[in-house]
Design brief:
The protein is of the alpha/beta class and 219 residues long. The chain has a single domain (3-212), classed as Phosphoglycerate mutase-like (Rossmann fold, 3-Layer(aba) Sandwich), CATH 3.40.50.1240. The chain contains five helices and six strands; from the N terminus they run E-H-E-H-E-H-H-E-H-E-E. It has helices spanning 32-47, 63-82, 118-121, 136-153, 165-177, and strands at residues 3-10, 57-59, 90-92, 158-163, 194-200, 206-212. It has a six-stranded mixed β-sheet with strand order 3-2-4-1-5-6. The radius of gyration is 18 Å and the shape is globular. It comes from Bifidobacterium gallicum DSM 20093 = LMG 11596. This is Phosphoglycerate mutase. It holds the Pfam family His_Phos_1. InterPro entries: His_Pase_superF_clade-1 (IPR013078), His_PPase_superfam (IPR029033), PGM_Phosphatase (IPR050275).
C-alpha cells in the first residue's frame, strides 16, 4: 500500500490590536508571539524523521499563512540541504484560503461597528450551518479537491499545507463524520497546530489522522 500524508498547519497568532474579524482582509501579519509559534512548529517539523521528509510546502495566499510557512521552510530546508536535497519553495493555492465571511472588518465586542450588534446577529441563525458567508460544505469541498489532487501528485510522500482553522477543521470533520457541519466552538485546531491526514494513494481512503500542538506553550 502506498500512502500520502498531508500535514495541515494552522497559522500562528495574528497582530490584531483592534480585535477585528480579519477573514480575507489584507494587511494582517503574524504577531511576535505568532512568529514564535510558527518557529516552534517549524522546529518540530524539522526534528521529526517523518515530517522532515516532506517534499512540498503550500499555503493560502494570505500574509499570516505565508509568514507561517516561511518559518517552517527555513529549518526544513536546513535539514534537506544537510542531506544533499534541493531546498523547497513555497507555493500558494486559493483553495486552502480562509472562509468567506460577511462579518469581515467587524470588531469583536460591543459598540459601533461591533459584531454583536443586533443587525449583525440576524445573520447568525445556526452555528452548525453558517448563514453569514461560505458554508462548511463549500469550504470542505474546495479543500477536498486540493487534497485529492495532491494525494495523486505526491503519492507515497508527505507535504505541508499551511491554512486556517475553518478549512482545516471543516475538512477533518467531513472525513471523520461524513459531514462538514460542526459547532465552531468545539474545534480542535490550535494556533500553529498540525493535523496530519494520511490517505491511501490509490483509493484515497483515509488511513489515519494525527494531531500535534508544538506551540501550545509559546507565549
Amino acid at each position: 500500500m502506498t500512502a500520502t500524508t498531508i500535514n495541515f498547519v494552522r497559522h500562528g497568532k495574528v497582530e490584531n490590536p483592534d480585535h477585528l474579524l480579519y477573514e480575507r482582509l489584507p494587511g494582517f501579519h503574524l504577531s511576535k508571539v505568532g512568529k514564535r509559534m510558527a518557529q516552534a512548529t517549524g522546529r518540530f517539523i524539522a526534528d521529526s524523521p517523518q515530517l522532515n521528509t516532506s517534499v512540498a510546502v503550500f499555503s493560502s495566499p494570505l500574509e499570516r499563512t505565508r509568514e507561517t510557512a516561511a518559518e517552517i521552510l527555513a529549518p526544513l530546508n536546513t535539514v534537506r540541504e544537510a542531506r544533499g536535497e534541493q531546498a523547497l519553495e513555497l507555493v500558494t493555492d486559493e483553495r486552502i484560503i480562509e472562509a468567506r465571511n460577511e462579518f469581515r472588518g467587524k470588531r469583536i465586542g460591543y459598540g459601533e461597528g461591533a459584531l454583536w450588534r443586533k443587525d449583525n446577529l440576524k445573520l447568525v441563525r445556526n452555528l452548525w450551518k453558517p448563514s453569514w458567508g461560505e458554508t462548511y460544505r463549500e469550504i470542505a469541498a474546495r479543500v477536498h479537491a486540493f487534497a485529492m489532487e495532491k494525494v495523486d501528485e505526491f503519492a507515497g510522500q508527505q507535504i505541508i499545507v499551511v491554512s486556517h482553522e475553518s478549512p482545516i477543521w471543516s475538512y477533518r470533520h467531513m472525513l471523520e463524520t461524513g459531514r462538514p457541519e460542526h459547532n465552531m466552538l468545539l474545534r480542535k485546531t490550535a494556533l500553529a497546530s498540525i493535523t496530519s491526514i494520511t490517505f491511501d494513494a490509490r483509493s484515497h481512503a483515509v488511513l489515519g489522522i494525527a494531531y500535534f500542538d508544538p506551540a501550545k506553550d509559546v507565549r
